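**User:**
Everyone, produce one record:

**Assistant:**
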Amino acid sequence: MDVNEFVLLATPAAQTLLRETEFDAKADVVAQVARMRATGHDAALVAAVLTQAKLRRRARAKFGDFAGRMLFTEAGLEQASRLSVAALHAQRFRAAGVNQVADLGCGIGAEAMSFAALDLAVKAYEIDPVTAAVATYNLGPFENAEVLSEDVTKLDLNQFDGLFFDPARREAGSSGKTRGTRKFNPKEFSPPLDWVFENIGSHPTGIKLGPGHPHDGIPENAEAQWVSVDGDLVECSLWFNQVARTNVKRSAMLIRSSTRFELTAETHEFEPAEVGALGKYLYEPDNAVIRSHLIGLLAGQTNTHLISREIAYLTGDAELDSPWMRGFKILDDLPFDRKNLRGYLRERNVGTLEIKKRGSDVVPEQLRKELAPKGDNSLTLIITRVGQAHRALVAEPLAKP
């Protein structure tokens, strides 16, 4: 989105058309454009409205019904927090007694919306002027939120009670229109992560980072939390001073519908799980557990162990019902041999085949073509290593918790 497109979308004609337009991925877009043009709308307006309708449809996964009254850029939607996760951030500040928060790198305003909804006074900063204009539109209903287009590295941060940083981890496209190139070096974030760490001071501070952020890049005085939403790992957040919990250094948070589950550890030290023989059941831990290095804690709580030191599958002889793990009953433990597997599936009339893999370089889609399953039955095939051996585990999924 550029300035002209934003100005166009802010017009009464565009607002009316947006309210009337519902993007359907299966709809005939050409016919939809033709209908809009036939009612007198010009091409630029029609294109802008259809783009927003498409983004709003995608945004429902993050914003629910709120998406229907928001504006989006492609990059802004990509990087925005889900509202359920932004609410976690806001609750940290409120629980710590913070009344005013600076949202430093607010993007399209997801965090600022959650802060404002909890009656926190919010000053939201975004360096890209078009994205800042979009955030201003999205925060319109909140009188306690203000958006400014400024470089946060030029601010006096001591004027704020609490700080929330969301360093940009993509090279911006044209005014936030495209997703841009992802940045992996924290020194290339905007603002640079080193600068963020240097400017925390004694402020209650939260920092949103990508879920793959390395453990050795986490300061000792931070509480680190990895968050998963319905099994989708979405972020690693760091918390300092009053918004960090006293006896927690690492945690995994799982949000499933309206329910939250959490595993916590008092240190940053990694305690690995034991390794043992394959049991009757195999369990795939949630990615928040894996990335937080809390798989050893989960194994201890569930009386399970790893099948191999470097592979994040747990196993045991008991059927478990845990929100943290997807479970499989092992039917057969076979050597990984394509020819023998093809015959095995043919003998059992298997036509629907789920293929999972860890610790193996197989490509599931390619392997499925090679095995050519045909039949009425279904199975799960897990290609992995048990100890040092390359195995094919034939399994059936347990009911999801």
In short: Residues 3-58 form one domain.
